[in-house]
Amino acid sequence: MWIERIRDGHITPSTTRMVEFLTHFGSAEYIIVMTIIVVIVLFILRKFVVGLWFGGTVLLCGVVLNLVFKHTVERARPNAANWLTSETGYSYPSGHATATSVFYGLAALFLIFTVRQMWLKIVVGVVGLFIICYIMYSRVYLGVHFPTDVFGGFLFGMASIFLSTGVYFLVRKPLHDLLKKWRINDKSITE
């Protein structure tokens, strides 16, 4: 395959060590821990509805539904002889690509909605997209995924964000009002 020939021409021990280290920033374990931290920070800031939306979307779509999808499709990984790291489980869609797309994509989206300066919105979007693309590349570089696995994970992650954001804008006001009724001061919506 053409992508493997390109990859094989750029493999070095130092690059492989760096890619192995950086790919962990897209692992389910890392994403779960970071999601918990983000939700705690949002709760401290009294943005309960946003925290529930963010945490629920990342954990449900980025981790749980991805596993369901993997076990439904049951696609085998590429030939283990070409792996530069060890990996288990099915290949499609890439869990790293899905979790990374949902976590970093939602984080970027939240920041884009929050910051006022256009140049900063652009920087946030570009940085978020770079992180997602790098994690996707790392999985192919390490030989544990086909390019279609990471692209499928990316598409599943983006679809999750679009669907979740639509649901969020439908339910945020009623949830905010419900919390207000229960005397919980939610600052997810500025009134």
From TrEMBL:
* One Pfam family here: PAP2
Does the keyword Lipoprotein belong to this entry? no
Gene Ontology MF, one: peroxidase activity
Key words of the record: Membrane, Oxidoreductase, Peroxidase, Transmembrane, Transmembrane helix
**Entry's transmembrane regions:** 27-45, 52-69, 89-112, 119-138, 150-171
State if Lyase is listed as a keyword.
no
| Domain Phosphatidic acid phosphatase type 2/haloperoxidase residues, every copy | 54-165
- InterPro entries in the cross-refs: PAP2/HPO, PAP2/HPO_sf
Q: What's the protein here called?
A: Acid phosphatase/vanadium-dependent haloperoxidase family protein
The species is Listeria fleischmannii FSL S10-1203
